[in-house]
Design goal:
By secondary structure, the protein is mostly helical. The chain is built from eight helices and no strands. The radius of gyration is 19 Å and the shape is globular.
Length: about 180
């Protein structure tokens, strides 16, 4: 936390090396958070870049209040996701994942992985917004319960309860989907 605070202070004074370290530290977590929220890897990469551009542009206004710098980045990412979802609600797009189109890969394995990801994304859409946010921050963002609680402005107990109810709901939804598959066969 102390190192992070000094990095942020240096970045606020336009130290490019300090901001680069913050970027390297948080890029993957922010990317996973956005990708889980929107379900499009390519768009998530672009949006993650935009999060860091926004952070760079407004880092001088960041005030250290004992909350991790990552909370500020997640707030920027959350706002990006909300803006993106507002814009894309009006149009329907099917993302193409070119990395899965490799000629030497196993088509059956690719189809199974794609189906699993689609089922998980579909199941998460049935959760409440708060449950989705907890799942995204905890598992895609790899944040602790305490960090998620600070970001969401909730107690740690509330975050634990949301996480538990979200996992139970996901398990029920995914098992129901599996039961339907077995019945079709």
């Amino acid at each position: 936390m102390q190192d992070e605070e000094s990095l942020v202070q240096r970045a606020k004074q336009r130290d490019q090396e300090a901001f680069a370290k913050l970027y390297e530290e948080y890029f993957d977590r922010i990317y996973r958070y956005i990708a889980l929220k929107i379900g499009d890897k390519v768009e998530a990469e672009d949006m993650t870049q935009q999060v860091f551009l926004n952070a760079l542009q407004s880092i001088s206004s960041f005030k250290w209040k004992g909350i991790p710098f990552s909370a500020w980045l997640y707030r920027i990412a959350h706002n990006q996701v909300v803006d993106h979802l507002r814009k894309t609600k009006k149009r329907v797009a099917v993302p193409i994942d070119e990395s899965r189109a490799s000629s030497d890969s196993n088509p059956q394995l690719m189809a199974e992985q794609s189906l699993d990801i689609e089922q998980l994304l579909s199941a998460t859409q049935r959760l409440t917004e708060a449950q989705r946010q907890v799942i995204s921050l905890r598992f895609a963002g790899e944040l602790s319960i305490a960090q998620v609680a600070k970001i969401m402005g909730k107690s740690q107990g509330a975050v634990k309860a949301l996480q538990h109810s979200a996992i139970v709901a996901l398990r029920k939804t995914l098992l129901a989907g599996t039961d339907e598959e077995v019945q079709r066969i």
